[in-house]
Amino acid sequence: MMTSVVVLVMVAALGSPLMGAEKMAMDEEPSAFAEGNWTIGPIGGYIAESFGGNDEELYFGGAAVEYYAWDDIAIVGEFLGYYIDQSEDTEGLGFNLLGRWHFWKPCKAVALYVEAGAGLIEGFDNIPSPNGTYHNFTLHAGGGFKINLGDNVNFLAGGRYFHLSNASIHGADRNPSLDGFCGYGGVLINF
C-alpha cells in the first residue's frame, strides 16, 4: 500500500511539469491571425440595391488575399468578377482593398471581425444603366465571422454596406449612385 502511494506521488510530481509543458506548448500554438500570416481563397456574394428605389442586383465571385500586418489586423485584397442585373444587364471586373480587424475570438476556432475599405469596378457597360458610367468607385463597411475548419482552412461569412458611385467625374447627371447591402462568404487557406 505504501509503495502504491509513493509511486502515485512520484508520477504526479514528475507528470505535473510535463503536463504544464504540454499546456504551455498548446498556448503557444501560432494564431491564424498572427502578424505575418497570409490567407488566400475563393469568395462570392450578392448585393441588393436597397435605398435608391432601383432594382439592381450584383452577383460577384473571385479571390481574396489577406496579409496580417499586425496581430488580428489584416489588409485584404479582393479580385472580383461581377454580373450586374439591371435594365441593361452587364458584367464587370473589380478590385477592393479593405482593412479587417478580428476583435473577438471566443475560442481558437471562431473569430468575429469588422472591416472597411474601398474599391473599383470597371463595367463592360454603364453601371447603373442607362445614365451611369463604365468606371465606378465602391465603398464598403461591415463585419462577419470566421470558423476554423481545421488544417489551416477557415470559412468566412459577412455582411457589408455597399456604395457604388463614379464620384461625379462626368457631372451629377451621370452619377446615379447605387447603395445596398452585401452578403458574402468564402473559404480561406492560411499559408
Structure characterization notes:
The protein is mainly beta. The chain has two domains: 1-30; 38-190, Porin, CATH 2.40.160.20. 14% of the residues lie in helices and 62% in strands. The protein contains one helix and eight strands, in the order αββββββββ. The chain has one helix at residues 2-27; strands at residues 38-49, 57-70, 73-85, 90-107, 110-127, 133-150, 153-165, 178-190. It has an eight-stranded antiparallel β-barrel with strand order 1-2-3-4-5-6-7-8. A hairpin with a 2-residue loop joins strand 6 and strand 7. The radius of gyration is 24 Å and the shape is elongated. The termini are far apart. Mean pLDDT is 86; it is low at 1-26.
In short:
The chain has one helix spanning 2-27, and strands at 38-49, 57-70, 73-85, 90-107, 110-127, 133-150, 153-165, 178-190. The protein is mostly beta strands.
Q: State the separation between the terminal residues, measured CA to CA.
A: 54 Å
Strand segment tally: 8
CA-atom Rg in angstroms: 24 Å
Strand order of the largest sheet: 1-2-3-4-5-6-7-8
Q: In the CATH scheme, what's the topology name of the largest domain?
A: Porin
Q: In sequence order, what are the helices and strands, one letter per element?
A: HEEEEEEEE
Number of domains: 2
The major pleated sheet works out as: 8 strands, antiparallel, barrel
User: How would you state the average pLDDT, rounded?
Assistant: 86
Shape: elongated
Given helix and strand content, the structural type is mainly beta
State the name of the first-level CATH class of the largest domain. Mainly Beta
What proportion strand? over 45%
Number of discrete helical segments: 1
